[in-house]
Amino acid sequence: MTMPNDPGNPENTDHESMTPNEAEAAAERAAEADEEPEIDPSLEADLEQALADVADVDVESGAEADAEPTEPTEPSVEDQLAERTEDLQRLTAEYTNYRRRTQRERDAAVTSTKAQVLSQFLPLLDDLELARQHGDLEEGPLKAFADKLLATVKSQKLEAFAAEGDDFDPEIHEAVQDLSDGEDQVVGTVLRRGYRVGDRLVRTAMVIIAGRESE
């Protein structure tokens, strides 16, 4: 080790003792050492892109974690009860309509059969009507027979129609002669009474048409 020429000089014995210029230069070097090193712009762009990708991955991972898996859920008890109630109401309505339809068909069949059977009694009723016009039903055995027969057919809802003065209806009246002179036509003479069971026509009435003024 080489000794300084002047060992007593503070500059040679105290290394911390320096000139103001040297101190200022040393301070600048220390400041430059404390500053952050400069980064290459291309490296900085790559770093920012990497940080952005990491942030996107974190966001997607969080969204996937928050999203619950979609699984088919069973209907609640209230929904099942409402569905069963609707099915029951539909079946009840269909059954009610079926009963009404079958009842109408049954009534129509009964009425048709009844009309066919009662139509066999119409010649007897015509003879009794002629006997009544001649006064043969006022008393005696024939009157008792007529009363019983008329009561029987009436219990089966067989009704007679057509009387002098009734409005002429071509649907239920069969005209054999027209003595009217206008559109206001009525039944002038009943040649044969008509019969029906309820709304079902069994036989039309045979009549002679007359005008209402000449009734």
The whole-number mean of residue pLDDT values reads 78
Low-confidence stretches: 12-16
User: What's the number of helices?
Assistant: 6
In the CATH hierarchy, the architecture of the domain at 116-211 is: Roll
The best one-word shape is rod-shaped
Q: CATH class of the domain at 116-211, anyone? A: Mainly Beta
Into which percentage range does the β-strand content fall?
15-25%
Describe the biggest sheet? 3 strands, antiparallel
Which superfamily, in CATH terms, is the homologous superfamily of the domain at 116-211?
Answer: Head domain of nucleotide exchange factor GrpE
Radius of gyration: 61 Å
Query: What distance lies between the first and last C-alpha atoms, to the nearest angstrom?
Result: 170 Å
The CATH topology of the domain at 116-211 is what? Nucleotide Exchange Factor Grpe, Chain A, domain 2
* SSE pattern, N- to C-terminal: HHHHHHEEEEEE
Q: How many β-strand stretches?
A: 6
Trace the largest sheet across and list its strands. 1-4-5
The proportion of residues forming helix, as a percent range, comes to 40-55%
Structural class estimated from helices and strands:
alpha+beta
